[in-house]
Amino acid sequence: MIDVAADGPIRTVTIDRPEARNALTVDGLKTLEGAIDEAAEPVIYLRGRGPAFSAGADLNEVAALEGDRDRAAEFARLGQRVARTIEDSPAVVVAGIDGPARGGGLELALACDVRVGTPESTYGEPGVSFGLFGAWGGTVRLPRVLGEGDALEFALSGRSIDAEEALRMGLISRIEDDPRSVAEEIAGNAEDALAALKRRIRDDSERATQERREADAFADLVAAHADDIEALLE
User: Which residues are in coiled coils (predicted)?
Assistant: First the structure.
């Protein structure tokens, strides 16, 4: 269900279940978690095989949770853990979204550092239409990304949006025919600077701590890249 391929500084992680629109089972989530957690590359490119990014949770497995509140909560916590693994990875994680990203699939994309859609990509949280909502961290990340007003309207309506509207709302950063090109662009930069930038931008400590850590990280990079800086002056 999860295919991993390394190409220099980029690890491509593919959700490979096109016959089910790349819906994720418990086993698939655990395998995805491992593929992200074990990455040694500075950039991870997350994509789906075939005509969808991911439909999210496998509804057959969700249906099997009926009447078992503990197992349902455990399933949600697993998805949350995978999303946190993506968010906390030292690698920069780029989501390449082609076709639908729905429910949990969208929530995993929200955990990525950069989201790039193709012109054919679409986005939605349809769970509310059948009495559910995404519980893989979506209610936490969606308002961070969109702001509370747009997040509420988007989630409560259950509607799907196209790439242009997703770009306008800030759900994705760019629209590209080949989203991998953005991963390649990022991977062309200094590995230690990428990791430092991600840590600093993701840091949710109070302001004084953030600024101290920023200054320390800058000093570390100046020391590490003294020769490169000198070369710029020649």
Answer: 187-214
